[in-house]
Amino acid sequence: MKYIGDNNKSSLFNSVYTELRDGILTGELKPGESLTELRISSELGVSRTPVREAIRQLEHDELVRAIPNKGAVVIGISVADIDDMYTVRMFAEGLAAEWAVVHITDEQIEDMRYTVELQEFYAKKGDYFQVWQLDGKFHHIIYEACKSRMLCHVLSDFHSYASRARELSIKTPARLLASVEEHRNIYEAISRKDGYDAKKYVEEHLIHAKKSVIDSMKEEMSKAAGNA
Description:
It contains ten helices and three strands, in the order αβααββααααααα. By secondary structure, it is mainly α. The protein has helices spanning 12-26, 37-44, 48-60, 79-103, 106-125, 128-145, 149-161, 163-169, 173-191, 195-227, and strands spanning 34-35, 64-67, 71-74.
C-alpha cells in the first residue's frame, strides 16, 4: 500500500477506501488477511478514523467481514461472485455495444482500432501484462461510447472487481491470443455500425472470458490449498 498522509483531510476517506479496495481486488490483500486499523493507519500515514470508515464501507461492499476478537478480515471475490458478475455483465455490455454503435465518435473508433492493434502487437510478443492493461482501455471505450452514465458506472465497477482474475486468465498463450481476436471482432462490428454483431461478439467474448477467469481462479485456489 502507498503512503497517503494527512495533507488532504476532506478526501482521506476516499483515498484510504480506494487504496484498500484496490488492494483487495488486485490480490495484494489476500482473503483471510486481517485489516487492523493501527497497522493500516501507520502504513498509509493517516489517522485511524478514515481507516475505520473505509473498513466499514468495505464491509458494506462485502469485501471484508468483521470477526469477533479478530477485527476485519478480507473476503475478496469468490468464484460465485465472478460467475454472477460476468453473467450480468454479458447482458449489460451487449446492450452498451449496441448503443455504442449509434453514438460512437470517429475519434473513439480510431482509439479502439489503435488499442486493438497494440494488443495484437503485445500478444504476439507474449506480453500478457500490456495486453491486460489495454483490455481495460478497450472496454472503457465501449462504456463511454454508449452514452449511458448508469451503464458506464455499473460496467466500470464490474470490470474493476474482476481485475485480478482477468490478469490471471490471459496468462495462458491460447487465451491471450483469443481475447485479442475477440476484441478485433467487436471493434470491426462497431466500426461498420453493426449493432447486432457488436452485441453478439461482446456476449461471446464475455462467455469465453468468464470460463477462463473461473478456471484460473480455481487453479490458483487449488495451488494455495496445496501450499497451506
